């Protein structure tokens, strides 16, 4: 039989533990057996001795918990330490006899002491009460209940129930006597005694006592009103007596330490209060479940789900953001983990667009402002593995954007998909902000930096150092390691400085390379202990981190190659056989794909070229495998990863072809000492065999694409796009080689064009592809960018548009990658054989193609600065290049398309923009005189001499106009960097990362930009007046001619800018210098442009927002000051000043500004109807309702500030409105005095 003191083991059941406890207590020797000697005379002394003996007995039941892996928390085991037995007393206390002495005087009775004892007494626990019962200590009896005597006019007395004297015997006797006396008195006697008592008291005291128990009427009313306005939270206000039947779980006597049930403390376990009705106008607080999903207020959720708690709104399931923040601060690690995991799920769903339009605030901004980043960073300093893991996952969900990363992986094998985005904040985008931060950043507090830039705040919090320590000293679960690397990737994407900081953080990349990029293949003899513990296992996330850092700059790529064995590692992963590794086949292929993409990055800089020779056997083997074994129409599901791997391999081969194509050129430059970089060790002779294999794969896959078009998967189309792009690169550089046989090359090009390009151009699949492209277009989309949900201090690419849809151009069915590669190949083949150019005409005969091109010119542009829009922009570029070669019939359509390309091309495409400028935008063939004459006629202007002269001058000066715009918009250093990026020139290529995350290179208002730039330059001079160089006058003269020609011929395109925006930008020319507007050509262009604007929209909205201006009033004040200073009453300048003044019921603030504060301007406004571009009759249809302005008009005429001879237009306008005011407002009582005065002074005009 087991001993009662036996230690409890793991295998013991609950029933066994209870039985052991029962036997222990039954066999345990009671302390009451201790005998007290008879010499003890006092019961009090005996009680003291007994209490001393009890203090030697202790029973300790301590529960220890061992942490398991955070994925198996519910299966944790518990161990119990055995009950510690009480120690037997070694001897029996024998107190000395005490001689009792009577005090000389009786003990004084102290009521205050009794009251103090009673009021200071605390509620005792059940344990303390039981111990007193064991010791024989009897509690004082409960207070005596005394029947209260109700006397009319007085409130019931509360002295008896609240007094502290009823704990003593004397108090009970006094109370009993008072009660007996009151019960013996009659009602009349009681009232008589009451009157006597009240007469002896101060009346003020009596009034105070009467009013103290009841609030005044005013207070009651205010309280009721406040109760109506205030928000009441559901609480258990009405506490009712409950029984065990009301509880969801019946207590059992067999439960440990639950032999006494305190029902009042189990009130919270009863039924939930009913939900409060929701006000649809005010909304309600958002509550989430543990999966990060919103819980509807009326959703019935079982309480067993753990979503009900004792916070605010206990009747509602779910946790609010505030409550989750409270749990993160908890001292319980489980509560921390629960809160962080829930917030991570919320963040992921928010970035997927699931919560778009639901909340009043931007959720991510609210979380950052609430201090979530700081809380997560603090939890990273914990020593608990589960807390650290959850902190990493939540921090990754906060900083990183997984939809962006997935979309970037999807397009990495597309044309120029290897280029990476940068995600800076305004500090890095704006030079002035960056300079200011550099100077004063050290003085800013952490909170201030967090509000400006989250990534910079991470540096201030030493996040890199902490991540290094965690990765080095903790063996975390795979998901936690992935999260840590994702955080580093997001930091690296921020800027070049952040990537450099990661590289220079001592020991950080060392840990990455040692633990997650081991330079060996995963053969069975090196398989990891557990696949959920990834130390020693190569991770594709780690390779991607290296790729992102290397893409930031060639100097970082060089430092990585020289310091770490990166090439050894990725070469091992490329050559790995999926059957030889313990990793799943899909993970092995993903690892190989990421290794190929990373090597492409290094190879684009011309680095590691010599190491490629070791890969030639495996590359040839894989290419032969794809040529002979992989088809696009067979086992498409099983071959999905084969297609993706094939696309990565072919993109890598294309990069090798590109490097080999520059081999001869770099050798020549090096011999001439024009470059100092080493020549990549890949010659064309090595690459040539690969080219033949690639061409054969292209022929096979394009035939299958055309034959089985509807059955081809998205991964299959990606593979086709990669092979077509590789073939295009091969033919581009083939003709540049000295060993090239042009006759053979031309024959091969014509054959390839006929079998691939022409076949596709004449097939029905062409129409299907472009019909689909109309739906998938980003440029023509009206979708709202996903960046709307991002706070300014933590931007993203916004791959998920507002509403939760992925950007259409990168969805699975998008044809943009195949079409772009196909058109690029067509262009490269047309450069070799002019016979192929004729076949391109078939492309322009397709109605689906024309439909797509016309849709692009409808000017949606909501996503034109989207990072992934660059791939559609690339497609537009190849369409334009083919149109230049083939000369389509509708030149105007393609010229408009070229303008769409100009404002949609991203940063990095400057050299391509320069080509389109030269070959199409400023090409006279696309701006013929016949079209101009038609425009004049359609606008009703006729062939006016001024307009014809300006148009003719502009057409004859297109080369000079192009030079002006290229100088303003395409600086030389940007052209060099862009050329190096597009052509992959290793000697000058500095980075593969594009700034600003997809920002366009040319602003949409580019025709006006030289004027704005010149105005800004002039404003920096201050009051200094210098003579303007003739060269700058000529530049602005050509700019104004182009603006006029642009508005005349591209009316539909120019309408993407509002009339007030165009008016404002043209008016800036008057602020660009003191004498520009005096030039004859500029003056004529200013007049003609204003005529086009006001003919289109006579009434301008001067209160509308103008991009680039805080308000139009600010610009107008500057124009007034300039007009007063230097205009000398110039009539064209005056026409721009007059435009706001002549519009009734509009621009009242601007009118008062002139008529009240600038009377001298009124004298200078000498513009006549012949100069003003449109008839004054447009503005004489509505009278001016502002009587104050009418007074100003009358005063100006009476004082001769304006006269009919000097100010004919303004005078006529003011007089007409005075007359109309008198006619319309004559019967209005308020204006009768004014009307009478006007009739008296201007009666001869009526």
Automatic annotation (TrEMBL):
Q: Where is this region: Disordered?
A: 210-230
Question: Which keywords does this chain's UniProt record carry?
Answer: Nucleus, Transcription
UniProt entry tagged with the keyword Transcription: yes
Residue ranges annotated for the RPAP1 C-terminal domain, each copy included: 286-349
Q: Where in the cell is it found?
A: Nucleus
Where in this chain does the record put each RPAP1/MINIYO-like TPR repeats domain? 1008-1227
Where on the tree of life does the source sit, at the highest rank?
Answer: Eukaryota
Query: Which residues does the UniProt record annotate as the domain RPAP1 N-terminal?
Result: 172-211
Renumbered to this chain, the Basic and acidic residues biased-composition regions fall at: 221-230
Q: Is the Nucleus keyword given for this protein?
A: yes
Which GO biological process entries does UniProt record here? transcription by RNA polymerase II
Q: Which family is this protein grouped under?
A: Belongs to the RPAP1 family.
Question: What name does this protein carry?
Answer: RNA polymerase II-associated protein 1
**Organism, per UniProt?**
Artemia franciscana
């Amino acid at each position: 039989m087991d001993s009662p003191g036996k230690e409890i083991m793991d295998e013991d059941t609950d029933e066994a533990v209870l039985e052991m406890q029962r036997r222990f207590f039954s066999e345990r020797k009671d302390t009451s057996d201790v005998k007290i000697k008879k010499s003890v005379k006092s019961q009090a002394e005996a009680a003291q001795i007994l209490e001393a003996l009890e203090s030697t007995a202790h029973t300790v039941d301590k529960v220890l918990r061992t942490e398991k892996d955070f994925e198996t928390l519910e299966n944790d085991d518990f161990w119990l330490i055995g009950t510690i037995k009480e120690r037997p007393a070694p001897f029996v206390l024998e107190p000395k006899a005490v001689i009792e002495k009577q005090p000389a005087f009786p003990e004084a009775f102290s009521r205050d002491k009794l009251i103090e004892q009673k009021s200071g007494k605390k509620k005792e626990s059940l344990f303390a009460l039981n111990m007193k019962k064991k010791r024989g200590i009897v509690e004082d009896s409960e207070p005596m209940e005394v029947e209260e005597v109700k006397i009319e006019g007085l409130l019931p007395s509360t002295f008896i129930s609240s007094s502290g004297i009823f704990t003593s015997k004397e108090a009970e006797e006094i109370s009993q006597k008072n009660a007996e006396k009151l019960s013996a008195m009659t009602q009349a006697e009681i009232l008589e005694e009451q009157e006597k008592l009240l007469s002896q008291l101060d009346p003020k005291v009596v009034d105070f006592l009467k009013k103290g128990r009841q609030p005044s009427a005013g207070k009651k009313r205010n309280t009721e009103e406040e109760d109506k306005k205030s928000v009441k939270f559901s609480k258990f206000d009405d506490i009712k007596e409950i029984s065990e039947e009301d509880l969801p779980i019946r207590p059992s006597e067999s439960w440990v330490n639950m032999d006494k049930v305190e029902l009042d403390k189990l009130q919270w376990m009863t039924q939930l209060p009913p939900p409060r009705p929701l006000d649809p106008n005010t909304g309600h607080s958002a509550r989430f479940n543990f999966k990060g999903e919103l819980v509807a207020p009326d959703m019935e959720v079982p309480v067993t789900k753990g979503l009900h708690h004792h916070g605010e709104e206990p009747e509602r399931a779910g946790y609010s953001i505030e409550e989750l923040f409270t749990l993160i601060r908890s001292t319980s690690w489980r509560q921390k983990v629960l809160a962080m995991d829930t917030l991570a799920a919320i963040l992921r769903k928010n970035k997927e667009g699931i919560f778009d339009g639901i909340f009043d605030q931007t959720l991510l901004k609210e979380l950052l402002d609430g201090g979530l980043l700081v809380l997560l960073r603090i939890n990273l300093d914990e020593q608990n593995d589960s807390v650290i893991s959850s902190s990493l996952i939540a921090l990754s969900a906060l900083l990183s954007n997984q939809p962006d990363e997935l979309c970037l992986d999807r397009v990495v094998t597309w044309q120029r998909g290897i280029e990476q985005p940068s995600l800076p904040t305004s500090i890095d985008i704006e030079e002035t902000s960056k300079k200011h931060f550099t100077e004063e950043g050290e003085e800013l507090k952490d909170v201030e930096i967090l509000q400006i830039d989250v990534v910079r705040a991470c540096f201030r919090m030493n996040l890199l150092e902490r991540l290094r320590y965690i990765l080095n000293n903790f063996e975390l679960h795979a998901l936690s390691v992935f999260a840590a690397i994702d955080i580093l990737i997001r930091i690296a994407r921020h800027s070049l400085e952040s990537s450099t900081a990661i590289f220079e953080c001592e020991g950080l990349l060392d840990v990455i390379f040692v633990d997650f990029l081991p330079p060996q293949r995963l053969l069975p003899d090196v398989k990891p202990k557990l696949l959920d513990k990834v130390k020693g296992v190569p991770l594709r996330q780690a390779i991607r981190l290296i790729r992102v850092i290397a893409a930031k700059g060639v100097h970082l790529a060089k430092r990585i190659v020289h310091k770490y064995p990166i090439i050894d590692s990725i070469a091992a992963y490329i050559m790995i056989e999926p059957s030889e590794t313990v990793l799943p086949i899909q993970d092995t292929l993903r690892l190989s794909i990421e290794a190929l993409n990373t090597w492409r990055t290094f190879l684009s800089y011309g680095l590691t070229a010599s190491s490629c020779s070791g890969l030639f056997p495996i590359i040839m083997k894989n290419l032969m495998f794809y040529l002979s074994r992989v088809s696009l129409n067979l086992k498409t599901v099983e071959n999905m990863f084969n297609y993706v791997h094939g696309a990565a391999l072919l993109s890598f081969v294309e990069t090798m072809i590109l490097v080999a194509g520059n081999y001869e050129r770099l050798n020549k430059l090096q011999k001439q000492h024009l470059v100092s970089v080493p020549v990549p060790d890949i010659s064309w002779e090595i690459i040539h065999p690969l080219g033949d294999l690639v061409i054969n794969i292209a022929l096979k896959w394009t035939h299958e694409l055309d034959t089985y078009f509807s059955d081809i998967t998205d991964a299959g189309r990606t593979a086709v796009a990669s092979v077509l792009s590789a073939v295009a690169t091969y033919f581009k550089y083939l003709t540049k080689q000295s060993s090239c046989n042009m006759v053979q090359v031309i024959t091969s090009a014509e054959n390839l064009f006929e079998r691939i390009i022409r076949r596709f151009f004449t097939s029905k699949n062409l129409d299907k592809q472009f019909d689909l492209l109309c739906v998938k277009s980003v440029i023509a989309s009206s979708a709202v960018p996903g960046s709307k949900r991002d706070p300014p201090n933590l931007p993203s690419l916004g791959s998920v548009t507002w509403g939760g849809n992925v950007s259409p151009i990168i969805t699975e069915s998008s044809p943009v990658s195949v079409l772009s590669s196909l058109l690029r190949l067509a262009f490269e083949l047309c450069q070799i054989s002019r016979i192929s150019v004729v076949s391109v005409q078939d492309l322009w005969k397709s109605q689906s193609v024309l439909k797509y091109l016309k849709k692009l010119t409808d000017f949606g542009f909501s996503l034109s600065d989207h990072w992934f829009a660059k791939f559609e922009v690339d497609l537009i570029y190849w369409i334009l290049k083919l149109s230049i070669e083939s000369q389509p019939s509708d030149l105007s359509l393609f010229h408009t398309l070229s303008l769409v390309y100009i404002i949609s091309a991203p940063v990095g495409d400057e050299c391509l923009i320069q080509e389109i400028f030269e070959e199409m935008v400023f090409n006279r063939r696309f701006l013929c005189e016949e079209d101009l004459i038609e425009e004049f006629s359609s606008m009703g202007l006729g062939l006016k001499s001024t307009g014809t002269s300006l148009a003719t001058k502009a057409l004859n000066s297109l080369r000079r106009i192009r030079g002006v715009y290229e100088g303003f918009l395409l600086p030389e250093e940007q052209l060099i960097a862009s050329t190096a990026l597009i052509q992959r020139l290793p000697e000058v290529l500095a980075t593969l990362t594009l700034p600003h995350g997809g920002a366009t290179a040319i602003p949409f208002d580019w025709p006006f930009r030289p004027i704005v730039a010149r105005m800004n330059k002039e404003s920096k001079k201050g009051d200094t007046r210098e003579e303007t160089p003739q060269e700058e006058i000529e530049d602005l003269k050509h700019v104004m001619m182009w603006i006029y020609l642009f508005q005349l011929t591209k009316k539909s395109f120019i309408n993407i800018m509002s009339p007030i925006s165009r008016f404002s930008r043209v008016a800036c020319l008057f602020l660009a210098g003191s004498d520009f507007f005096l030039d004859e050509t500029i003056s004529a262009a200013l007049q003609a442009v204003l005529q086009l604007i006001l003919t289109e929209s006579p009434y301008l909205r001067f209160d509308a927002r103008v991009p680039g201006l805080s308000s139009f009033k600010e610009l107008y004040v500057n124009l007034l000051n300039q007009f007063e200073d230097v205009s000398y009453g110039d009539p064209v300048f005056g026409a721009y000043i007059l435009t706001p003044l002549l519009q009734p019921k509009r621009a009242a603030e601007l009118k008062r500004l002139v008529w009240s504060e600038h009377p001298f301007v009124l004298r200078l406004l000498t513009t006549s109807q012949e100069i003003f571009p449109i008839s004054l009759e447009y503005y004489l249809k509505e009278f001016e309702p502002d009587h104050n302005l009418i007074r100003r008009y009358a005063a100006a005429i009476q004082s001769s500030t304006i006269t009919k001879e000097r100010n004919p237009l303004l005078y006529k306008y003011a007089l007409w409105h005075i007359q109309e005011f008198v006619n319309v407002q004559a019967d209005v009582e308020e204006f009768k005095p004014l009307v009478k005065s006007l009739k008296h002074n201007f009666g001869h005009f009526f």
